[in-house]
Automatic annotation (TrEMBL):
It comes from the Bacteria. Phosphate binds at residue 97. It catalyses: L-aspartate 4-semialdehyde + phosphate + NADP(+) = 4-phospho-L-aspartate + NADPH + H(+). It is an enzyme of class 1 (oxidoreductase). Pathway: Amino-acid biosynthesis; L-lysine biosynthesis via DAP pathway; (S)-tetrahydrodipicolinate from L-aspartate: step 2/4; Amino-acid biosynthesis; L-methionine biosynthesis via de novo pathway; L-homoserine from L-aspartate: step 2/3; Amino-acid biosynthesis; L-threonine biosynthesis; L-threonine from L-aspartate: step 2/5. HAMAP family: ASADH. This is Aspartate-semialdehyde dehydrogenase. GO terms for molecular function: aspartate-semialdehyde dehydrogenase activity; NAD binding; NADP binding; protein dimerization activity. It comes from Acetomicrobium thermoterrenum DSM 13490.
Length: 333
């Protein structure tokens, strides 16, 4: 298959390339694309070097699947053009996620939705993906009523520059440099920032609304209630989430363990064991740890959910959607 990647030089684009290689995706022609800023660079795929082309009207001719991770503006501009050239676009940005004509897909949760696509399929937000991979098996049995999520999101969620900023802010503070406590943005080194995306007039951030709105769309569960606080933490790679999930039916730990043990893409830790982001980096799985009855709510479980935000939270989920398209060729039309 002729596969294009728009955003090929970014962190997620690079992870998409690695994931296509790791999963031996049937690529017959590889077309790395980027904005003018990054065009001309060289990327490697399956041992060969490819010059990154600048995205334009003409580069999508004959492309069958285009993986996008170049930001919402680029997706809004180039996805319709790619589709008009016959490609199916799998978009990792927020541009199309809530468009009623665009399916929002987590392959372990709602794979059937890919057949609704009209040329574009949206990849959900990383924090949403890992939460629903863990919650969907329980939802299908006990019917999710409400969940709260406090996230601890790594800096790689905002790209390469953020990784450099983390290193710089840590080394600056270690050298004894001080910072202005009331000058924003505050350093992320030795700090946590409860602010991801713009905060609106209700005091809720963009990232927090994504958890509610995307979860309702993916689960087709529009009465679902969600509370969410998203926090940036000084971690390079891997998001963690402290989740409390309340169900309509009485849930038992034994059944929850059994369901999660059988769930695709999930590793559930026994007893009070847990995984940390450092351990989950570059893994394909969503790790569920410290699974327990919630201290305060009836019919509720608490859990610690960790996954690699660049892998399952972005690149792997997108490539798995591409695999669904290939396995169900009818959906490629
Ligand atoms: C973040 N979820 O972590 C957002 C976008 N990847 O910054």
């Amino acid at each position: 298959m002729r596969i294009a990647i728009l955003g090929a030089t970014g962190l997620v684009g690079q992870e998409m390339i690695k994931t296509l290689e790791d999963r031996n995706f049937p690529v017959t022609e590889f077309i790395p694309l980027a904005s003018s800023k990054s065009a001309g660079r060289v990327v490697e795929f399956r041992g060969s070097q490819f010059e990154v082309k600048e995205v334009s009207q003409d580069v999508f001719e004959g492309v069958e699947i285009a993986l996008f991770s170049a930001g919402a503006d680029a997706s809004k501009k180039w996805a319709p053009i790619a589709v008009s050239n016959g490609a199916v676009v799998i978009d990792n940005s927020s541009a199309w996620r809530m468009d009623p004509e665009v399916p929002l897909v987590v392959p372990e949760v709602n794979p059937q939705d890919i057949r609704q696509h009209r040329g574009i399929i949206a990849n959900p937000n990383c924090a949403t993906i890992q939460a629903l991979v863990a919650l969907a098996p329980l939802h299908r049995r006990f019917r999710l009523e409400y969940f709260s999520a406090v996230t601890f999101q790594s800096v790689s969620g905002t790209g390469k520059e953020a990784l450099a900023e983390l290193d710089d802010s840590i080394s600056s503070i270690l050298k004894g440099n001080t910072f202005e406590p009331h000058v924003y943005p505050l350093p992320i080194g030795f700090n946590v920032l409860p602010h991801i995306g713009d905060i609106d007039e209700t005091g809720v951030s963009e990232e927090e609304w994504k958890m509610l709105n995307e979860s309702r769309k993916i689960l087709h569960h529009h009465r679902l209630q969600v509370s969410c606080t998203t926090v940036r933490v000084p971690v390079r790679r891997g998001h963690s989430e402290a989740i409390v999930a309340q169900f309509e039916d009485q849930v038992t730990l034994e059944e929850a363990y059994a369901l999660l043990s059988d769930a695709s893409g999930v590793v559930v830790m026994s007893e009070n064991k847990y995984i940390t982001p450092l351990q989950a980096a570059e893994s394909d799985f969503v790790y569920v740890g410290r699974l327990r009855y919630d201290m305060g709510l009836p019919r509720a479980l608490s859990m610690w959910v960790v996954s690699d935000n660049l892998r399952k939270g972005a690149a792997l989920n997108a490539v798995q959607i591409a695999e669904l398209l290939v396995s169900d060729l009818g959906a490629l039309k």
